[in-house]
Amino acid sequence: MAPAMMSSPASSPPPLDPDSAPLSPEPRILKSRLVAGETLYGLFLLCSSPTLAEITGLAGYNYVVVDMEHGSGGIVEALPCLRALAATRTPAILRLPKLSAAWAKKALDLGPQGLMFPMIESPDAAETSLLLSALAKKFAIFSLSSPRP
């Protein structure tokens, strides 16, 4: 091995501190900041690249919306993006492609900190989104794919 490639004990990384390790962001933090009237800055992620998701998380945004309505990815591509954002402790909101219970359930299985419902253009659509939000809060069950414990 070349001398430049050798590692010495002094250059070893420090042991991992569990208190400073990247963890999934606490969902209530985003909500409490919004309720407090704090101005938050976010970004819409239209591509399904976990690398770009990680970069946006590291850029310091308060949240990132992973857009499945206008973006190029679907539910399968959203999971790696949510995991990349969780690694940076950036809250992720998942924008659904359609207002439906089926999409809401699939999205909740991925463990985002929030859902954004598309095309709320009528009182019926608003009522449906409120119902899905209430059901999500009460009955959310996370699968093995979820980044949450």
From TrEMBL:
SUPFAM superfamilies the record matches: Phosphoenolpyruvate/pyruvate domain (SSF51621)
Q: Which domain of life is it from?
A: Eukaryota
Instruction: Provide this UniProt record's keywords sorted from A to Z.
Output: Lyase, Metal-binding
Q: Which Gene3D superfamilies match?
A: Phosphoenolpyruvate-binding domains (3.20.20.60)
The chain positions of domain HpcH/HpaI aldolase/citrate lyase read: 41-128
Chain spans, region Disordered:
1-24
Segments of skewed composition (Low complexity): 1-10
Q: What's any one GO cellular component for it? A: cytoplasm
An example molecular function term from Gene Ontology annotations: aldehyde-lyase activity
Query: Family assignment?
Result: Belongs to the HpcH/HpaI aldolase family.
Task: Return the protein name.
Answer: 4-hydroxy-2-oxovalerate aldolase-like
